[in-house]
Structure formats: C-alpha cells, structure tokens
Amino acid sequence: MHYKCNNCGGSMVYSPAEDVLYCPHCEGRNCGVLVSQKDMDVCPVCGAPVEAGDFGSAMQCGNCGTYLILENRVEDSYRPQKIIPFKITKEQAVESIRKEFGGRPFIPRPFTDHKALMGIEGVYVPYWLHDYNSVERFTGTGQRVRMWTHGDMQFRETSYFEVIREIGVDFDNVPADASDRMDDDLMDMIEPYNYDQMTDFSPEFMAGFNGEIYNRPSQEYVIRSRTKADKAIRKITDDTIHGYAVVTPTSQNIDARKVKEQYVLLPVYKYTYRFGGKNYDIFVNGQTGKIAGEAPTSVGLAAKYTIATFGLGFLFLMFAGSIAAML
Ligand SMILES: [Zn+2]
Ligand SMILES: [Zn+2]
Question: pTM value?
Fold first, then answer.
C-alpha cells in the first residue's frame, strides 16, 4: 500500500513535526488516499521489482521514489499492537550527529558532510515489550563496626545483623529489539523510550520511513528483556540495604513472571558510514534524539601526527647531541 496525494499524485509521508500526512511535492496536508495492493513484489506505481528482503515491511521504491508499505507485513500476526511515531525529523537527527561529532579531532571530515549525513535511514525497528512481575529474596549478614579509645586501650566492636529483604517490582514495557541487524549494545544505549507516547498502530505513521518485522518470535528475546529487569530489581534491592560496613549475601534469588508481551514499532535513525573497509553505525532515538554509536578515526591523520612528534623529538636529540660534542 501507499498514500497517494489527491492533489498532485505524489507519494505522501508522515511528518513528525506536524503529526500529519504531508505531500513533499505540493505541500498538501492530510490529502492522501490509501492505495491498497496485495501483490508487493513489484511497485504498484512504476512496476519495478521491490527488494524487501526477509524482514523489510516499508521502503522507498528505488525506481520512482514511492514510499511503500507491504500489507502482508503489517497484518495478522505481523500487525504491531502499538507504535511510537517519529517525533524527531531527519534534519534534526542530522543536526544532532553533526553537533556531536563535528568538532572532534581525528574524525574524517566527510563523516559529518551534509551529503553523507542526509543518507541517514529512518526506520521503525521491531521490538518485543515484556512485562514482568519480579520478586527478589535476599538474605545476608551485615556488619557494623564501632571503635573507641579509653585511656590507653583501643576498643573495636563488631555487630552482626541478619539482613532480609523481599522486594516485589512490576515492570512494564521492558524492551528487546527484535531486529538482528541492529547492534544490541547501541540499541540499549539510545533507550529509554517514553512509552506514554505509544499509540495504536496505524500504517500511515510508516509512510516515508523504512520498517522491519520482528525477526524471531517473542520467546527468543526473553533472555534479553529478563536480564534488564533482573538488573533493575537487583539495584532497587541493593539501594534498600545501607548502614553496614560489609554485607555478605547468603542467598539471593529473583523470580520473574512474564505477564504480558506486546509487539511494537519504535523509531530509530541509523547512519552508516563506511571507512577503511569497516561500517560505523550511529543510532539516534527517533523519539528523544538520544545518540549512540562509534565514529571512525582517521588513521592517516593520527599517523601524520605521530610522525611529526617523533620527528621533532629526533631533531631535538640531534641538536642536544651536537651541543654535547661542541663542549
Ligand atoms: Zn501533492
Ligand atoms: Zn516505483
């Protein structure tokens, strides 16, 4: 399917700035008509083949530029329950990458060139959100030490306490991205998302963006979300134990019951820059603008810098050497 402008026939896109369907050709707003098409092997406008790969659900036709959404990949078991629409525009994402990396030494200048940055991809990344009812049971021994002097004598008193905690926490929306091409660590780093802005799924939010379906079913991502929930409850429990010099755990376990799962799409900008035979990815949270990623370092520049420093040191030694010889 795609959204065709009623005024000019152009391909409409979702505007994060205005929260409307927008026609970039005639600047019309909310003037789109949904054109449905079941066979999505070819572009419905120009007939060119569509390369969706195993997981693509939305993309731009490489031939005519129409923004396509593959119906069979947003329906039935692939229909997301919720979506956080893009709030950050492509221009804002580009600007924040330039701000973050523009002034740093040794980063090759083409990395922050406008033309390269405009190749940034806005993609709705598939996520599983898991809700957990977690309980941590902790027992341990805490020590408190008191020291004082009386006359010539020094006293040291160690008191032992049994520390018992049973902490229950209900976690909502613990995220695990279900796209294997997205680096897990970087995806974790652009969190958190504000789930209050999550809304019912509608395909028009995807117009103008790329999209992916979940690569594997929910249960294969449980370990990832569960690890996050366990880490969080451990911190909550630890924060309730204070006032001891030392705490030695004797038993510690976490029960977590997964009580809900949702398939949702979350907005991400992905900038990939190829340098020295390696891809460098920068991710921008499409809702909050938070950035994570690795920028290339110009080896040529670094090498030049090292050679220059070495050269100076070498000259200095020669100079010192000739002074010594003269004396
Ligand atoms: Zn138009
Ligand atoms: Zn086309």
Answer: 0.84
